[in-house]
């Protein structure tokens, strides 16, 4: 495509659709600065790939909307992850100095470790191997000389035993 024709078509597309794309993205995100960046990036992408998009079945305006929507969704996902992380850090920060929380947690861990010691030897071995040492059921089965299903059975028994005893302590 001739450069002058490309420029003219692109400029017309920009003038006719920038505001619509901007407000479309603003409806999705709500942050004017971020929206301006996303829409600007969409037009930059279109400029760099204009010939390819012109040859494709998708019209340039549809490609712009697709690009803007995709970037908006990416932004929202990143914000969601950031918000969840900030919430986690805030909760953890509040608890870091909470002596009662740490004492309760230590007691719970000690109680569970005591319960693990009360499991039958093979069940205890399977449970420790999988949960404390992070081995797979297959690795544990090979070490113990039993099938993966046998390991699963030991794990189910161990978890049921521990849950039952922990709930019993809470109920008292």
Oligomer: single chain
**Head-to-tail CA distance between termini:** 81 Å
Main sheet: strands, sense, barrel: none
In DSSP terms (H or I, runs of 4 or more residues), the helix count works out at 8
- Named at the architecture level, the CATH assignment of the largest domain is Orthogonal Bundle
User: What average pLDDT do the residues reach?
Assistant: 86
Shape verdict = elongated
DSSP, total strands: 0
Unreliable segments (pLDDT under 50, ≥5 consecutive)? none
* Tally of structural domains: 2
- For the record, the CATH class of the largest domain is Mainly Alpha
| H/E element order | HHHHHHHH
Radius of gyration: 29 Å
Beta-strand percentage range: under 5%
Helical coverage, percent range: over 70%
Q: By helix and strand content, what is the structural category?
A: mainly alpha
User: Do you know the CATH topology of the largest domain?
Assistant: Rna Polymerase Sigma Factor, Chain: A
Short description:
The protein has helices at 3-28, 32-48, 50-55, 60-96, 99-117, 121-132, 137-144, 148-171. The chain is mainly α and 172 residues long. It has 2 domains: 1-91, Rna Polymerase Sigma Factor, Chain: A (Orthogonal Bundle), CATH 1.10.1740; 108-168, Arc Repressor Mutant, subunit A (Orthogonal Bundle), CATH 1.10.10.10.
Description:
- This protein is mostly helical and 172 residues long.
- It folds into two domains: 1-91, Rna Polymerase Sigma Factor, Chain: A; 108-168, Arc Repressor Mutant, subunit A (Orthogonal Bundle), CATH 1.10.10.
- Helix content is 87%, strand content 0%.
- It is built from eight helices and no strands.
- It has helices at residues 3-28, 32-48, 50-55, 60-96, 99-117, 121-132, 137-144, 148-171.
- Helix 1 runs antiparallel to helix 2 and helix 5 (99-117) packs across helix 8 (148-171).
- The longest helix is centred in the middle third of the chain and has 37 residues, at 60-96.
- The protein is elongated, with a radius of gyration of 29 Å.
- The model has no long low-confidence stretch (mean pLDDT 86).
- InterPro entries: RNA_pol_sigma-70-like, RNA_pol_sigma-70_dom, RNA_pol_sigma70_r2, RNA_pol_sigma70_r4_t2, RNA_pol_sigma_r2, RNA_pol_sigma_r3/r4-like, WH-like_DNA-bd_sf.
- One of its GO terms (biological process) is DNA-templated transcription initiation.
- Pfam families: Sigma70_r2, Sigma70_r4_2.
- GO terms for molecular function: DNA binding; sigma factor activity.
């Amino acid at each position: 495509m001739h450069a002058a024709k490309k420029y003219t078509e692109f400029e017309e597309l920009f003038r006719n659709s920038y505001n619509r794309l901007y407000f479309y993205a603003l409806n999705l995100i709500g942050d004017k600065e971020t929206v301006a960046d996303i829409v600007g990036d969409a037009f930059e992408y279109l400029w760099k790939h204009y010939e390819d998009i012109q040859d494709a079945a998708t019209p340039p305006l549809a490609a712009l909307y697709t690009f803007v929507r995709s970037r908006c969704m990416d932004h929202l996902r990143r914000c969601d992850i950031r918000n969840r992380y900030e919430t986690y850090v805030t909760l953890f920060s509040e608890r870091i100095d909470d002596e009662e929380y740490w004492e309760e947690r230590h007691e719970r861990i000690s109680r569970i470790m005591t319960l693990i010691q009360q499991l039958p030897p093979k069940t205890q071995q399977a449970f420790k191997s999988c949960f404390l040492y992070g081995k797979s059921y297959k690795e544990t089965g090979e070490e113990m000389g039993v099938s993966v299903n046998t390991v699963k059975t030991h794990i189910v028994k161990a978890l049921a035993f521990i849950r039952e005893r922990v709930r019993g302590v809470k109920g008292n």
